[in-house]
Structures are given as structure tokens and as C-alpha cells.
Amino acid sequence: MSLKTIIRLQKLQLDEKRRVLAELHTLADRLRNEIEKVKQEIAHEQETVRDDFSVSFTYSNFAQAALERGRKLGESLGQVEAQINIATDEMAEAFQELKRYELAEEERLKRERDKQKRKEAAMLDETALVGFRRRQAEEEAAGG
User: Fold this and answer.
1) Measured on CA atoms in the order 5, 7, 9, 11, is the torsion positive or negative?
2) Which of 20, 37, 88, 105 would staple 3 via disulfide (CB 3.0–4.6 Å)?
3) Which residues contact 18 (CB under 8 A, 6 or more apart)?
4) Between these two residues, 34 and 50, which has the higher pLDDT value?
5) For the chain, which domains are there?
């Protein structure tokens, strides 16, 4: 398998890791929004209880359910954040691996260019040497 193929595959893997990481960040944002909504609902219900004592009997059940929901959302957010950390590390590792392959390919291309330059220089040297010998032979034939 050529380095170009490996680089192409590595880029695809890196793109996939970026996509997964973006999805995890989106999920974390949604969970944060849900947690904020639960907090707002609790605050709203507390205001309602202060304004109307008759609903205070149901507030306890609501508050317990809302707090439990908030707790579960918090746990889910913690799990997603742990996954984000893992995905970030995996993406960084994939990026480093891609860079290693790209640097290896650049080095290979540089060696090829240097080899071609040496080949061209040798051809020019040979052409110059042939021309020099021909002129020397012509001068000896003319002079001699």
C-alpha cells in the first residue's frame, strides 16, 4: 500500500473522529440545555407555590421528580464529557499519525527530487565532458 493511500485512509479516519467529536459536543450542549430547563422549571414552580399556596401540595412530588431528572441529566452529561475527552485524545492521536505519514511522503518526494536533480546534473556533466573532449580532439587534429 502506498503512502498516498495510507494518507487518504488516515484523513478519512480523522474526519470520522472529528464528526464523532462534533456529535458528542452537540449532545453535551443539549444535555446542558435540558439541565438549565429543569432548573428554570423548578424556579418557576417555586414562584408559583409562593404565589398560590394551594399548589404547594403537588410541589413536593414535582420537585423530587425534577431533581431526579436533573441528577440523571447531570450523570449523562458527565458520561458524555468523559467520552468527549476520549474522543479528543483519539482525534489528536489520529492527527499525529496522519502528520507522520504526510512527513514521510514529503521526505520520499524530496529524495526523489534530489535523485532526479543528481541524475540531471550527471547528464549535464557528461554532456559537458563529451563537448570538452570533442573540442580537445578538434584542437589536436587542427594543431597537430
Assistant:
1) negative
2) 105
3) 91
4) 34
5) 1-112 (1.10.287)
Q: Average of pLDDT values for 19-46?
A: 95
Average pLDDT of 67-85? 97
Distance CA 114, CA 111 (A): 5
Backbone φ, ψ for residue 30 (5° rounding): -65, -40
Q: What is the pLDDT of residue 139?
A: 87
pTM of the predicted structure, to 2 decimals: 0.72
C-alpha span between 24 and 79 (Å, rounded): 10
**Residue 62 burial by Cβ neighbours in a 10 Å radius (0-12, 13-18, 19+):** middle
Measured from the Cβ of residue 20, the count of other Cβ atoms closer than 10 Å reads 15
Mean pLDDT of 95-107: 95
Is the model's pLDDT at 85 over the cut of 70? yes
Q: Which amino acid is at 23?
A: E
Residue type, 25: H
